Amino acid sequence: MGVEQEVDSLQMQAGLREEALNKFAARLGAWGLAMPLVEPLVLDFGVGDFARTGLIEYWVANELGAGYCGKYLFVFDGQQCPAHSHAHKHETFFVVKGEVILNVNGEDRRMKAGDVLAMPPGDVHSFTGRGDALLLECSTPCHPADNRFVDPRVSNWLKRALG
């Protein structure tokens, strides 16, 4: 399975996905921002509670041959991207709008618009919106199978989704 097919297999149910995207579009409008014209990825990480565990991703580029990836990550107020690490992927996060609590290896870091943090492979991290928040991730290429989630429910969801 190629990376594009892996990503498609992770999507939330259509009705809930559209509801989340409509709410996100309203937030973007209030901020006066536009997203790239790509199909967004709306994730609940198999937990079934998007309001608490989930995020919306807009992949700008995932250039495997050139060695880079860029995507926007959006979390609603109180929503968390669950704790995980990567065996190979190195990421740098830039907070575009809002604030997040980024937990790295058990230590909370409050990050606001303009803050930058590099995340080397192996570091366990999660982030939670303090208000709605938009981050830019610049990284080495993204391979969904490179994610190592702490929560076994999320790990099992990923294994099922990727086959």
Give an overview in words.
With 163 residues, the chain is of the alpha+beta class. Helix content is 21%, strand content 42%. The protein has 3 helices and 9 strands, in the order H-H-E-E-E-E-E-E-E-E-E-H. Strands 1, 2, 3, 4, 5, 6, 7, 8 and 9 form a 9-stranded antiparallel beta sheet that branches. A hairpin with a 4-residue loop joins strand 2 (55-63) and strand 3. It is globular. 26% of the residues are buried. The mean pLDDT is 92.
Biggest beta sheet summary: 9 strands, antiparallel
Order of helices and strands: HHEEEEEEEEEH
Tell me what portion of residues adopts beta-strand conformation: 35-45%
How would you describe the shape?
globular
Class computed from helices, strands and strand pairing:
alpha+beta
Mean pLDDT: 92
Number of helices: 3
In the predicted model, the low-confidence regions spanning at least 5 consecutive residues are none
- Our measurement of the CA-to-CA distance between the termini, rounded to an integer number of angstroms, reads 9 Å
Number of strands: 9
Radius of gyration, in angstroms, nearest whole number: 15 Å
The residue fraction in helices comes out at 10-25%
